[in-house]
Design a protein that fits this description.
With about 550 residues, this protein is an alpha/beta fold. The protein has two domains: about 160 residues, Jelly Rolls (Sandwich), CATH 2.60.120.260; about 325 residues, TIM Barrel. The strands form three sheets. Strands 1, 2, 3, 4, 5, 6, 7 and 8 form an eight-stranded antiparallel sheet that branches. An eight-stranded parallel barrel has the order 9-12-13-14-15-16-17-18, surrounded by six helices. It starts with about 30 loop residues before the first strand and ends in an 11-residue tail after the last helix.
Length: about 550
């Protein structure tokens, strides 16, 4: 079963025209009022697509009702969920004169409903050859919840039988109404459609995972969560880093290196999203990250011990640091720079100042420590989605990536499964992306998402995030599914990033555990990281 039945537009070989005797022949009107449509998607075989989209015979697009309430549950919105893109095509039934169009779009950030990044209208006489007559790649939201009405009138009417609305879809795009404005009568001034060779859609199909040789030689990056709200937590010690930096066999002997890169980032409970967060929280986070003897310090010390014991004098682990996100709701952030200026994140200029500070401060501290056993490679854009139709977000992201690049470093991003922006992250200066399948956290989800995530990361040249959400048998079984699919599909040989609970984390607990099933997680992950795991591990 697919989201929409297989549909084919029947080409028109000879034009047909409306009869001049029709009473509305000269009346400018909505030519698609009440009409059915063809709809095509770039990806059809995902369960979430089948269950969340409006059906192809839904009436919202042409029922004449223009929604005015910011509520997607009213039944007035045609819902498009995932699937890369949509083409919605109307057959006007006979050649007409198209003078313009109207499209009503919904934007609600907290519901993950966004404007499409690009919106194109094309015309055709025969249903095969098309001319784009309208392109908008800059639909920008002003408020977090709003309705946008694209209302365009062409300078010259155009003869056409078919009208196609094309737009991209990351998570949700919702349309309240589409109109094609024109007349059945075709005046002498009407222009002929001039078909152009359709440009390929702006999407990447690299058919190749992100590989270590493209990513500083990194194979396996561990998310090292530090800075819990309690001052006594979020401090990863040298001892706790040791079984990550090195692999210890079942006898307890250090025999090899293990994770070769580490991303330092705050716990989810760290107060970075709440309206009352202040500069004190940001400074606290940076202080914690570079606390003497812990976190980045501890990693450098642990790496030094491992390289000495294994006889690897030139070995270094790689480090990435986080760029915290200045939310617009933080209007009383306070004096981050210590110069008496209180920042207000409702002002775009203050958001940029904060982004610069969090990069500069961590970069300065890292350099001042003169670490000998680690190498700073870049920064992590901390949010898991990109609000690409928010003008302020676009500016802030480009500012951050440009600034990091000037320091000679790179930017990484880890979106949740098909998060907004997962198709176009390169356009905003992000160098590397790693997509989360999120399978570990939803017990009602089947492993289809592991395979779907593999297809997408390969298609777009991304890394694959491995995720373990706990140490229970259920969590272990679901994590083992990641390992199994990685061996089956081949992404075991690519770059991986690993989510686990906050430091020291589930892999550390597995390392210490006397329970074989849990302890096997540590040893099987090592084999996976070294590309030697086979499916036999499932039967051991």
């Amino acid at each position: 079963m697919k989201i929409y039945d297989e549909q084919k537009i029947t080409p028109v070989t000879m034009p047909e025209y409306w009869d001049k005797s029709e009473p509305d022949y000269h009346v400018e009107q909505n030519l698609i009022a009440g009409l059915p449509f063809y709809i095509f998607s770039g990806e059809n075989d995902m369960p979430s697509i089948r269950t969340h989209n409006s059906p192809a015979d839904a009436k919202q697009l042409t029922d004449g009702v223009i929604p005015t309430v910011l509520d997607f549950k009213t039944g007035e919105w045609f819902k498009c969920c995932h699937g890369v893109y949509r083409d919605i095509v109307f057959d006007l039934r006979k050649t007409s004169c198209v003078n313009g169009f109207k499209a009503v779009l919904l934007y609600m950030v907290n519901a993950a409903i966004y404007y499409p990044r690009n919106f194109t209208v094309s015309l055709s006489e025969n249903g095969v050859d098309w001319e784009p007559v309208y392109k908008n790649d800059d639909i920008a939201a002003v408020q977090s919840d709003e309705i946008c009405i694209l209302d365009e009138r062409f300078s010259v009417g155009r003869k056409a039988r078919f009208v196609k609305f094309s737009f991209d879809v990351d998570i949700w795009v919702m349309i309240g109404e589409l109109e094609v404005i024109g007349t059945k009568a075709i005046p002498e001034t009407a222009a002929e459609v001039k078909p152009v060779k359709e440009e390929p859609r702006k999407e990447i199909n690299l058919n190749k995972y992100l590989m270590p040789e493209e990513f500083f030689g990194i194979h396996d990056l561990l998310l090292a969560y530090n800075c819990r709200p309690s001052a006594d937590e979020g401090k990863i010690t040298v001892e706790q880093f040791m079984p990550y930096v090195a692999y210890f066999d079942r006898s307890g002997k250090m025999v090899d290196t293990f994770f070769d890169a580490y991303l330092f980032l705050p716990f989810a409970a760290f107060p970075h999203r709440t309206p009352d967060v202040t500069y004190k929280n940001w400074r606290w986070y940076v202080d914690n990250t570079f606390e003497k003897g812990y976190n980045v310090d501890a990693l450098d010390i642990a790496t030094g011990k491992v390289k000495q014991e294994l006889g690897l004098p030139d070995y270094k682990t790689k480090v990435f640091l986080s760029i915290l996100y200045p939310f617009k709701t933080q209007t009383n952030f306070g004096d981050l720079y210590g110069n008496g200026e209180a920042l207000d994140f409702s002002k775009q200029s203050d958001r940029l100042k904060a982004v610069k500070w969090i990069i500069d401060e961590q970069y300065r501290r890292y350099k001042e420590r003169n670490y000998q056993n680690t190498e700073l490679c870049g920064f992590y854009w901390f949010e898991e989605q990109l609000l690409t139709t928010d003008a302020g977000e676009r500016e802030m992201l480009r500012f951050a990536t440009d600034y990091v690049h000037k320091l000679g470093l790179k930017v990484i991003w880890i979106p949740y499964f098909q998060a907004n922006g997962y198709l176009v992250w390169r356009d905003y200066g992000i160098d590397y992306a790693c997509m989360q399948p999120n399978y570990s956290f939803y017990n009602n989800e089947t492993d289809w998402v592991l395979y779907a995530n593999e297809r997408y990361v390969k298609r777009f040249g991304m890394a694959y995030e491995m995720e373990i959400g706990g140490t229970s048998d259920v969590h272990i079984d679901r994590y083992n599914a990641y390992l199994r699919v990685g061996v089956e599909t081949g992404f075991m040989n690519a770059v991986h990033m690993y989510y686990q609970g906050g430091g020291p984390g589930e892999f550390y607990q597995a390392f210490l555990s006397k329970d074989k099933k849990l302890n096997d997680v540590y040893h099987n992950t090592y084999k996976f990281a070294k590309h030697t795991l086979t499916l036999d591990f499932l039967n051991e």
